[in-house]
Amino acid sequence: MNNLKKLVFYLLLMLLMTSGQLSAQAGQPTGEKAQKMFQAGKDAVHQKDWNAAVEQWKNFNTLFPQSPWGAEPYYWLAYSLNQAAREISDFEKQTSMREQAMNKIEMLLGRFKDSSWASDARMLRIEMAEYLTSAGRTQYKKYITGSAKTGNGSDMDVKLVALDALMQMDEGKALPILKKIIKENKDRSIRAKAVFVLSQHDDPSIPPLLGEIARQDDDPYVREQAVFWLGQEGGEAGLGILIDLYSGLQDRKLKEKVLFAFSQNDSEASFRKLLDIAKSDPDLELREKAVFWIGQSDDQRAPGALMDMYRANTDTALKKKIIFSLGQLDDGQAAAFLKEIATGNSEDRLKEEAVFWIGQMGGDANANLLKELYDGNANFSVKEKILFSLSQIDSDASLKHLLAIARGEKNPELRKKAIFWLGQSDSEEAAKFLQQLIDQD
Q: Are 70 and 57 in contact (CB under 8 A)?
């Protein structure tokens, strides 16, 4: 399983644990010294100066064990100890600091079990218990297994974090609990989080389970999450489930999610499926979506496939989507084909699209091509698009062509357009030309 996904999970965990915690507290009145020490501790946390934070919170808790902030100073001491341990290379010192942090968490939960900080403390305890258990301190595993089995309502987030940790140690115990949550919990956000926890692990039973959720869950959001994580799974099992899923779905929005999932899989089979949908799906909007994702692909077959589809289709809207996708590819074949569209017998709407993307490619050669197109085209809207595209190319050739058009164009509207785009440039030559026009008036 992708390590990046695991990192994302822990980042989310940290956000859950610290969300809103650094805001000012509306506590009871207290002494000036306590106020200053409390703020100094918060400042050290803000600045991520963990050693300073540890000292500040240790001193605070020693001097003010009954402060009006209750559980919070104990939480920040445990949190700072854990963070400081991350920056130490010595294994024994790391472990010792985390054990100290565990003691502070136990103190917090013993004295302030009903505090709003209790849930955050239990999450932090699970994180540290996972580390300590892997470091050989197996007595801490009970905090993971215990939290994975219990917890409902506001504690469900703690339970899910514990289940993720337990999946690392004992999938046989964690999987049935996760499956039960997904099947029975009425809260869609909880079911979606359980899907996320499942998706982080490599057990072969997980892709089929995600496929089942994508087909059967009552909530569209949960189904979409299952599809998304199937796409991130990246293996053949997940891809096969997605292909079967696409064929059986009626929900267009969910089908669009499956298309995105195909685009995240680098296999030949996923590219072939996208290509098949782009060519023959009865739903034109889904075909257009497939064309878009082919344009985002790094597959070497993408330019040729898109060009073949363009030639084979008569639908103007789909052809415009194909031109867009060709414009996304950093490929010589695609660029040559766009020039072919712009200079051939295509509809003016398609020429305009091709002209736009040629302008986005930049360079003197493309500026020269656009000037040739301008001189050889009688259509006003195409010429407007060419002027805009010339303005997007930062080159001497594009500036020269805009100046020539501004000087020699007989159509006053097109001449105004050329002058306008010259005014948007930083060129001294353009500025001199504009000054000459002003002086003439």
A: no
Compute CA distances 323 → 55, 284, 351, 390, whole Å: 62, 16, 10, 19
Distances 257 to 70, 143, 318 between C-alpha atoms, Å = 46, 37, 20
d(CA 44, CA 200): 33
CA atoms within 13 A on the CB side of 32: 0
Percentage of residues in the chain having pLDDT higher than 90 = 41
Looking at the predicted structure, is the pLDDT value of residue 149 above 80? Answer: no
Angle subtended at Cα 202 by Cα 86 and Cα 266, rounded to the nearest 5 degrees: 100
CA distances from 271 to 109, 212, 225, 294 (A): 53, 24, 22, 8
Is residue 228 within 8 Å of residue 259, measured between CB atoms? Answer: no
pTM: 0.65
CB 420 within 8 A of CB 402: no
CA distance linking residue 380 with residue 385, whole number of Å = 9
Q: Is 27 helix (H, G, I), strand (E, B) or coil?
A: coil
Check residue 235 and report its DSSP letter.
S
Residue with tokens 């000036």: 32
Whole-number Å distance between alpha carbons of 42 and 399: 57
* Residues 221-263: tens digit of each pLDDT: 999 999 999 888 767 888 899 999 998 888 899 999 999 999 9
> What DSSP character marks residue 281?
-
From 98, 108, 148, 107, select the one nearest 128 (Cα to Cα).
98
Kindly report the length of the chain: 441
Q: Residue 298's CB: how many other CB atoms inside 10 A?
A: 9
Arithmetic mean of pLDDT over the chain: 85
Residue 105 scores a pLDDT above 50: yes
Distance CA 434, CA 133 (A): 74
- Write out the residue limits of the CATH 1.25.40.10 domain(s) in the chain: 1-18+31-184
How far from each other are the two terminal CA atoms of the chain, in whole angstroms? Answer: 70
Which numeric CATH code is attached to 1-18+31-184? 1.25.40.10
The alpha carbon dihedral of 230, 272, 291, 330 has a sign of positive
Q: What is the pLDDT of residues 34-85, one digit of tens each?
A: 999 999 999 999 999 999 999 999 999 999 988 999 999 999 999 999 999 9
Closest by CA position to 44, among listed 20, 22, 66: 22
